[in-house]
Amino acid sequence: MLAVNQLNISIKTRRLLQDINFNIQPGELFVIIGPNGAGKSTLLKALTEEINYSGEINFQQQSIKKWTTAKLAKTRAKFSQHHQQDIPLPVNEVVMMGRYPYFASKPNLTDLKVVSESLKLTEMSAFKDKSYNQLSGGEKQRVHLARIFAQLNNEFQEKLMLLDEPLNNLDVYYQHKVLEAVKGFAKKGNIAAIVMHDLNLAAQFADRILLLKDGKMVKYGNPKQVLTSKTICDVYDFPCKVMSHPLAQTPMIVFGEEKSTSIIQNINP
Amino acid sequence: MQTKFKWYMSLGFILLIVSFIASSLLGVYQLNWNDFLLLFKSIFDDTVAVNPTDAYIFFDVRMPRTILAIIMGAGLAVTGTSLQGMFKNPLATPGIIGITSGSALFAAVAIVLGSTIKSFLPEILHYSLISIAAFIGALLVMMLVYSISFKNGKTHVVIMLLAGVAIAALAEATTGFLTFISKDDELRDLTFWRLGSLGAANWPKVIILLVINLVSLSFLLGNGKALNAMMLGEENARHLGIKVKKYHAKIIWLSSLVVGASVAFAGTIAFIGLIVPYILRLLLGSDYRIILPLSAVFGSLLLLTADIISRTTLAPIEIPIGIITAFMGAPVFILILLQFKKAL
């Protein structure tokens, strides 16, 4: 279980997060949404101790600060929002970095197998010997996703995968592919926390959604509880309508103003 | 990649053995292959009779010099590779960012000011006096450059390079000034510092440098994984369980130690740390797990070859080795700059 209790973060006088509380159970895919500057990435940074915070973060009933670096490297992985563009190595060597916590100087057979499985998962197998630097933005992103999956491929229970906007450069096909893979990972008794902007994808895949605005929790619950017309319109300050997704039967959010019928009549007399 | 690595490693070792033999035979005093075999045999077998002059030239002149070149070359190249990894830039080498200059500056001050106390100290301590000064100089510059050019895990390349220029200018000015006020024997020492030479090699120096470099390299050569992970950015490296700050501290201290000791014994020999990793990267890519051990072997090879060239081309005159390495290194430096221009 990942339990966040009274989490507060401020830099100088600016409060980035205020009184954040939530529990995530193993097996759950947890999605953090909210407008720009809501504190989504900051929350993930707190979960990886990249930023100073007050309050408690307990992971598997133990304060995350008490975990050893070596154990955490095999139990928790993070996909960062920004990636280095210049890594002069072949793709499979970048993915192999995800196995660095597991071997001293030479990867063993398991490590090699895990790397090729992870490449298959993000459909990057064909690129394995290509230079990372020659890939497109979306391909680079899939390389790092494969690296994250490789890092958490082990016998441990209740692992934590943190993904900060993993879908940004991906097309519809890979957005779904990646979310399905993450969902599959969570289903095995792990926890996945994703920051994303696409509310409809969040509605389709999330078990729990945390909606943030200006560093505060607006709502926390399952997609149906969080994604209501009133909340979304208020938080994003944009007209919207929540319907039911005709295929997935999940909430579906449509943004925009309703056009007056007279204009439509003018187009189709 | 593993097979390629093994292939280059074997090639490096073979070339190193060839240069080792060449270095012990070539010179004003000619030795030939049979002399070499005989001298080599005499190490293990006391009954083998050898010409005492041959033995002196071989064991007390050429051997220490050759071995010093091998140890020093390995140390300088590995240091260069480690710094490049830490600063994430191919120009971050001890020479270019001013560590060598800073080290030489402190050593020069120690030579001139230390000459009064020097006569009271035993020989081994007098080497270490200069070595300690050179180490402190290297460490101070290293920390200065690190603190001003490294911010939030990113290197400010321009500041890093300009720091090197500034420190080199200061070192040049100070050594120039010291040249004016120094006595004759100190002057000879100072000239040797500025251009670099392995001519003063002897066994005590070999042993001191051997100990320093063995210790330092045993810690630096295993950093391949950490340096690779740092290419992902510092935070991402940390998520992989790499204690980035610890590695940085390790690289800063050990590089200073290696550069300081090398400067103390051979003056400023530039560009070894730049040329070797550059060429290895061109041939094999940037995996530090491969580049680090190979740079040790090829660094030895390069410095030893440069030393052979320096003392045989214009024999009996020796060209300072710094001039030879600068002739090899400057074009590489320009090539890297041209690549930068393309990347901009």
TrEMBL record, chain A:
Domain ABC transporter intervals: 2-239
Function: Part of the ABC transporter complex HmuTUV involved in hemin import. Responsible for energy coupling to the transport system.
GO MF entries: ATP binding; ATP hydrolysis activity
Protein name: Hemin transport system ATP-binding protein
Alphabetically ordered keywords of this record: ATP-binding, Nucleotide-binding, Translocase, Transport
Lineage of origin: Bacteria, Pseudomonadati, Bacteroidota, Flavobacteriia, Flavobacteriales
SUPFAM superfamilies: P-loop containing nucleoside triphosphate hydrolases
Any Pfam family the entry gives: ABC_tran
Keyword Transport among UniProt keywords: yes
Presence of keyword Acetylation: no
UniProtKB/TrEMBL annotation, chain B:
Keyword hit for Cell membrane: yes
Membrane topology listed for this record: Multi-pass membrane protein
Subcellular location: Cell membrane
Gene Ontology biological process: siderophore-iron import into cell
GO MF annotation terms: transmembrane transporter activity
Gene3D superfamilies linked to this entry: ABC transporter involved in vitamin B12 uptake, BtuC (1.10.3470.10)
Source organism, top-level taxon: Bacteria
InterPro entries with a match to the protein in the record: ABC_BtuC-like, ABC_transptr_permease_BtuC
GO cellular component: plasma membrane
PANTHER family: ABC TRANSPORTER PERMEASE PROTEIN MJ0876-RELATED, FERRIC ENTEROBACTIN TRANSPORT SYSTEM PERMEASE PROTEIN
Family to which the UniProt record says this protein belongs: Belongs to the binding-protein-dependent transport system permease family. FecCD subfamily.
The name this protein goes by in its record: ABC transporter permease
Organism field: Zunongwangia atlantica 22II14-10F7
